[in-house]
Write a structure and sequence with these properties.
Elements (H helix, E strand, L loop, with lengths): L1 H25 L26 H6 L15 H16 L5 H4 L2 E5 L2 E8 L2 H15 L4 E7 L4
Helix pairs in contact: 3-5
Length: 147
């Protein structure tokens, strides 16, 4: 009887450790896949793509002013930098607004891209106007259509 108790007491910690390892292995992050093959694990909770490339490509007018048009002169670069910093500092704006194109050529700023609302569109234009004035801002931003 003592030998059986001794063997059981020696085997019990081993069983507990093995079951603990099994529990630890099964308690890791779970990632389910939806029917379209997209992972719904630790990614974005909204299920929306993180960028607005599709929205930009659907509207050819979004190609009017690109980063290639921006010259490398100091004054234009500083203007673009000031506007970008102002936009990035405003945490109430969406990621779409933060990623809007800002192209400055000879002191004239063109805003391009897709934003979520008319309020964001005017907010970005106001931030640009604070740097260069209303008459030097071309607001080509588009508002994303709700589906």
């Amino acid at each position: 009887m003592k030998i059986a108790l001794l063997l059981l007491s020696m085997a019990a910690p081993s069983l507990v450790l093995q079951s603990g390892v099994a529990l630890a292995q099964s308690s890791g992050p779970q990632s389910a896949q939806s029917s379209d093959g997209q992972s719904s694990g630790s990614g974005a909770s909204s299920g929306l793509p993180a960028d607005n490339t599709k929205n930009n490509s659907q509207d050819p007018s979004n190609m009017a002013a690109t980063a290639d048009n921006q010259k490398n002169n100091t004054s234009d670069v500083k203007i673009t930098q000031q506007i970008r910093r102002s936009i990035m500092a405003d945490k109430s704006l969406s990621t779409y607004a933060h990623n809007a194109k800002i192209v400055t050529v000879n002191g004239t700023v063109t805003l391009n891209g897709v934003v979520h609302s008319d309020a964001e569109k005017s907010s970005l234009a106001d931030k640009a106007a604070q740097v260069v004035g209303n008459d030097r801002v071309v607001n080509d931003l588009k508002v994303k259509e709700e589906k």
